[in-house]
Amino acid sequence: MTDSSSIATIDPKEAAHFGAMAADWWDPAGSSAMLHKLNPVRLGYIRAAIDTHWPGHAQAFRPLAGRRVLDVGCGAGLLTEPLARMGGIVTGLDAAPENIAVASAHAQGQGLTIDYRATPVEAIGDVAYDLVTSMEVIEHVADPAAFVAALASRLAHDGLMILSTPNRTPLSRLAMITVGESVGGIPRGTHDWNRFLTPDELTALLEAAGLEVIDSSGLSFDPRKGFVLSSNSAINYLLTARHRRG
What tens digit of pLDDT does each residue of 113-143 get? Predict the structure, then answer.
């Protein structure tokens, strides 16, 4: 049984909002179309981080073979499935049971073994994970500091954590809410700009949890190429962190 403090980071309204999108999560033209466009860029960043942190497997198809992976806020598995294909022993968590049902069915159809759970990260036990990912999630939780602390507590000593989230800037408000939620395909009500975190704010939360940021990248939109990694973090960004050393 889980006490109320262990689920403090879940916002029930946010869970319901994303659970309502579960049925067409895997439709590239559906309500998660933006995530489908972001996913290849995020995966490229994650793969580069893996190859840097655990060298010697740069050409391997399964660089995560034998490593435990935790994807928090996994939705229906857009990122979780590629992590499993990279060889990871993957657990995917989401606050919406509807998402977990869709994710489990889709993975089974792809012949992938993924441990999907409609469980908060605070309640999954003391297993240590080599890679912890949480993409476009922290802006939806009730307590970002507690959420980061919970993620850090599940990270193995030599593990790697990778987060992505929108920046809180005038440009992100314009791109993701004013335009994105009107004509850009993002469902209305998905974002609350006031809950976005700047890179400095997220870095401070990671440091308070005993981690250090070792890499960062902006994620921006190029009219010719679509979403790309960039030095410009005004709309969205990714951070890589590990346990503080020394």
Answer: 999 999 999 999 889 999 999 999 999 999 9
Helix 12-19 vs helix 97-109: angle between axes, to the nearest 10 degrees? 40
C-alpha 175: how far from chain center? 20
192 vs 181: CA distance, rounded Å:
11
Q: Which structural domain range is residue 96 located in?
A: 4-243
Q: How far from 45 is each of 2, 48, 88, 189, CA to CA, in Å?
A: 35, 5, 16, 28
Q: What order of strands is seen across the sheet that includes strand 89-93?
A: 115-117, 89-93, 68-72, 129-135, 155-166, 236-243, 211-222, 226-230
Total domain count for the chain?
Answer: 1
Contact 37, 99 (CB under 8 A): no
Question: Has this prediction a pTM greater than 0.85?
Answer: yes
CATH label of the domain that carries residue 122: 3.40.50.150
Question: Quick one: the chain helix, strand, coil %, rounded to 5?
Answer: 40, 25, 40
